[in-house]
Amino acid sequence: MESYALLLAATLNAGTVLAIAALGLLVNEKAGIVNLGAEGMMLCAAIAGFATVVHTGSDWLGFLAGMGAGALLAAIFGVLVIWLGTNQYATGLALSLFGVGFSAFAGIGYVQAKLPERPRFAIPVLGDIPLVGPALFRQHPMVYVAIVLAAGLVWFLYRTRAGLVLRSVGESPESAHALGYPVRRIRLAAVMAGGALCGLAGAYISTAYTPLWVEGMVAGRGWIALALTTFATWRPARVLLGAYLFGGVTMLQFHLQGVGVNVPSQILSMLPYVATIVVLALISRNPAWIRVNMPASIGKPFYPGS
To answer: Please, where are the H alpha helices in the chain?
Structure first.
């Protein structure tokens, strides 16, 4: 039973990275913008956060640095696609490739660097409950932040006027513009908010999840987070559940190895990506269901003068 409690704890931890990044990408797509640069943004944020913690000793400053790096890259992406009219998909791929290369270059001096002693977290009393305590109540605060963030995003999108405006920009930017809303600025704000969340996820990887810096350490999580938005049909609560599902698949490989299952490690490492492909293939069998939930103007440019 203890091994299953540890597996659940690891699942929540692994799913947090995907959840935070995917919620950021969901904000982008609700405004009608597709950003394929999540992988690059997360890598740049990971080195920014790691370097900040190395020099300051503060995890929270590292998280802020990661969010700043993600927001900055997202702002550049937003200006290119929203004001200059570049192709969203090509620009996002270019951002991802840039992030991979730049983070590798910037991180050369930090490969052997060590962070200060990592703190241990536990909720008083609840953390001492047998089995349940280690699984649920001895997590990094960011695990609980991800849950609160998903709930807050549900409230924002479906219970506030600002959320309604954001969704209207993603559904029909022409109508929103006709009503006097600054569509371009709203889209840029959404893109930067999404970039900040991707940056937070990247910084969490390098400072808390696996506290070290290695080139390419995001290891495809940005792409999985992007797939999660479709898997969840653009619903924050489903994003959270999907993130834990994929986090569980990721951790399952280590659990199977730990209990002595005789399967090549390469096959086990493939599990999260195979699961992503299988889920997307199953969802794609019902395109009408996707169209009902998908923002109508997602990926489409908007020109106010047209």
So the answer is: 2-30, 38-56, 59-78, 88-106, 132-136, 141-159, 161-171, 173-178, 183-204, 221-231, 236-258, 265-283, 287-293
Pair 142, 243: CB distance under 8 Å: no
Distance of alpha carbon 243 from alpha carbon 148, whole angstroms = 14
Task: For residue 103, give the nearest of 223, 14, 222, 202 by alpha carbon.
Answer: 202
Rounded to a whole number of angstroms, the CA Rg of the chain reads 20
Question: Residue with structure tokens 């597996």?
Answer: 7
- What CATH topology corresponds to 2-113+126-293? ABC transporter involved in vitamin B12 uptake, BtuC (1.10.3470)
**Model confidence, pTM:** 0.92
User: Is the separation of the CB atoms in 31 and 169 below 8 Å?
Assistant: yes
Report residue 168: phi and psi, to 5°: -65, -35
- Report the alpha-carbon distance of residue 283 to residue 43 in Å, rounded: 29
Q: What would the pLDDT profile of 149-179 be if each residue is shown by its tens digit?
A: 999 999 999 999 999 999 999 999 999 999 9
Question: Domain residues of the chain, as ranges?
Answer: 2-113+126-293
User: Cα angle vertex 219, ends 225, 53, to 5°?
Assistant: 95
Average of pLDDT values for 216-226?
92
Count of CB atoms within 10 A of residue 149's CB?
A: 21
Whether the predicted pLDDT of 251 surpasses 70: yes
